Please model this.
Amino acid sequence: MPVGTQTNPRRTVEDMYEVKPRNVYVHQRVLGDPDCAARMDRMMGCIEPDQPPITVDDAALNEVSEQKQWERVTRWRTGQYKRQRDPDIIFNSYTWDTPEDIAETNRLYPHLRFARLNGAGMHDFRDGRSLLERKDGVCQNAHCLHSAWGCLHACDYCNIGEFLNIHMNLEEVVAHLDELLDANPWQQLYKYDNQTDTITFEPEYGSSELMVGYFAGREREYLQLYTKSDNVDHLLGLDHNGHSIISFTISSETVAREMEKNAPSTSERIAAARKCQQAGYHVRVRFSPIMPVRNWREENATMIEELLANVKPDVITIDLLAHMPGERLDANFDTDLFDPEYLQKTRDIYAGPHPGVPISPAGKQIWHHADRATVYRHFLDQIHLHDPDCPVSFCDEIPAMWREFAPQLAGDPDDYACTCGPTCVPGNPLIRTTT
Model:
């Protein structure tokens, strides 16, 4: 099925996305575990590789990774390699090895040390303090949960589209959650999974049912599912007990159609968010990354009006395109889609006294403060035009920007609410509870 079609024809209502990769690799650990093998068999019903699945061990997978140059995902974006096929799929599983064993695996198989190919990394720690010190970006500390790396949506600005590494021993993931949550009583919200889109694998993968069910039994903690998919019907009948939050990334129509090539349309995502809210889930929205395309003001005003006519988000986070060196703008995108003013500003910055270096202190932001503020002001004005009480937050923005817009935001850099903050759960006075 060709990349770039809309409306999302890649699945039926009841199944995960259809996937047509060149190769499927199955780690021998998966074949040795009946639950993992059964999960893989279910998913293979929607996967049509060019050839039969290939069984691998660490050594063979390391060789494949080296040959295919998968490490380029650490520095390339999907748009740079103009992906024409669905990503290769690796069915993998976590090993629960000690740090010493993981270090030895990385030494022996260096091409598995990223994207959790080495069987490690059920959770990682987002260090907000370090981000502030290194990049002048405001964020909060939190442990994040993971079971996969890679994505089917083929967004031009994203790096996680060339292969898809999926861990299959989900029952063991859930069994390890008590230890993590009990050791971190300060954290109440756990984001799962922002380095893939697990919703696109459902219901065959089964992670939503397991994770939602686990958090339904917790007293203080909440699960956050993170998606730009409309594949939500499997969620609607789950007993979530009000302890699951679904965060939708929603983009304007041109961005959804032209830059998020396998993702659902703007209206489909809004309809999915409405379904989830009607099913009692807490729903949040990210406008991220905001792309200043031609007619960005009109398109985003239309998007915001449609969203807020159908959904009452707990909180909205807004974030401009970032981490994009100037020479990659032309490599990643059809730049005719961009607003000419913002395109020229970008080229002026990267042709300036420090070519190739973004304007922020450590490389996140692309546009100057005033130009970012113009976009943020438009979004804030439109959101509060249609929903005056809706809490809004920035993502990874600098303290000066927070101070400029403080009266319109859900807090300040020292105490704020956002879609994925560790204490941004129902009852936090900076968000609203809508269920």
In short: The longest helix spans residues 369-386. The domain at 24-416 is CATH 3.80.30.30 (pyruvate-formate lyase- activating enzyme). The CA atoms of residues 185 and 220 lie 9 Å apart. The chain has a mean pLDDT of 91.
